[in-house]
Structures are given as C-alpha cells and as structure tokens.
Design brief:
Length: about 190
C-alpha cells in the first residue's frame, strides 16, 4: 500500500458501477482515498451535491480508508489543502485518454508536486458513463447492472414519470403486436 492520501475527483452524477470499481481498486493501493465531488460544475446536475454525497457515502461505508467530500474551485488547491499526493482518475477507453492527458498536464502545470495516476475499471464497465446512464434512465430504460442498486432506486424515484411513460408505451406496443397477430391469424384461417 502506498503511503499518503489520494484524491479521486469527479462529478459522480450519478455514481456508476465503474466509479465504484475504481474506488475499490484505489482503496487497495492508497493509504487513504478521498472521493471529491465538484460542487461548482457548470452543468445542471440531475442529483444535488447532497444526494451524490449521500449515495457515495452509503456505497463506500464498508471501505474504511475511503472518505467522501466536496470541493469548489481548482481541484489541485483542494488536493493540497488535504495533503493529497496523488490524483486518481479512471480511463475506460482510448477516447478518454485525450481529455484525461490534457487535464493531467494542466494539473501538473498548476501543481507540479501532484502526480496523476490512471487506473482501468473492469472491462465490463468500459462503456458505462454517468451521461449515458442519465440518458437511458431519462427515457425510462433499464440501468440494472450499470449502477449500484441504491442509485438505481434513486433514479427510479427521481424519474418515476419517465418510467411510467416507458412502461405504458411498452404495454401499448405489446398490445398492438397481439392484435396484429390475431388479425393475421384470422386471415390465414379464412384462406385455409
Ligand atoms: O467526472 P468528471 O466530470 O469528468 O470530472 C471532472 C473534474 C471534476 C475532475 C474536473 O472538471 C475538475 O477537476 N474540475 C475542477 C476545476 C479544475 O481544477 N479545473 C482544472 C482541471 S484541468
């Protein structure tokens, strides 16, 4: 285990199984891992910072060296304020690399003593992102296996109308299919 504190910053809107996988891996490598939620994001989030904090705390309750916190402004300044020596970020695919490299080099320019460490989540999560989870859930689609159960439940609560609409439409399509089948069965019988 590495001596020292590492920071795992992000939006976590919402936390996914990929995030959790990375937190678990990071907690085995660093003495302490601080998962830091950005508070002043320009994007309008689906979950409030308080909701994300609560979800992440529940998800990491069994990891004794993991702490959840929030930060404002420059990440490197927050990292320095908690004596972190390292920034942990996940890379899922080559497409992440360019953005992550740019961010790591900018952070190094801002604070040369902080190293960025990249880790890969399990390959089964390589296509999972908070953005896609939000998109699927907003359309009432299933997100089982992509996010922890607590998050799935929170998404359902928040997006209940979308799920109802989706379920109603699925029901309509199935009913249409059934009645189409009946009509063609009748036609076939008539012909015979
Ligand atoms: O999960 P995300 O949205 O990819 O996380 C991006 C995050 C929060 C790590 C990044 O936007 C960030 O650190 N923002 C804080 C402001 C900052 O320090 N910007 C300079 C980084 S190059």
């Amino acid at each position: 285990m590495n001596k020292g504190i590492a920071i795992y910053p992000g939006s976590f809107d919402p936390p996914t199984n990929g995030h959790l996988d990375l937190i678990q891996r990071g907690s085995k490598i660093f003495e302490e891992l601080v998962v830091a939620i950005l508070r002043n994001s320009e994007k309008s989030p689906m979950f409030s910072v308080a909701e994300r904090l609560e979800m992440l705390r529940a998800l990491t309750a069994d990891l004794k060296n993991v702490r959840i916190d929030t930060f404002n402004g420059l990440m490197v300044e927050y990292a320095k304020s908690i004596d972190a020596i390292c920034i942990l970020r996940g890379i899922r695919a080559i497409s992440d690399y360019e953005y992550e490299l740019q961010m790591a080099l900018m952070n190094r320019k801002l604070e040369p003593t902080l190293e960025t460490v990249f880790m890969m989540p399990a390959d089964k999560y390589s296509y999972v992102s908070s953005r896609l989870v939000r998109e699927v859930a907003q359309a009432g689609g299933p997100v089982k296996g992509l996010v922890p159960e607590v998050v799935e439940q929170k998404l359902r609560e928040k997006l209940e109308p979308a799920y109802k609409f989706h379920d109603a439409n699925i029901g309509e399509a199935a009913a249409d299919e059934k009645s189409n089948k009946k009509t063609s069965d009748k036609k076939r019988k008539k012909k015979a």
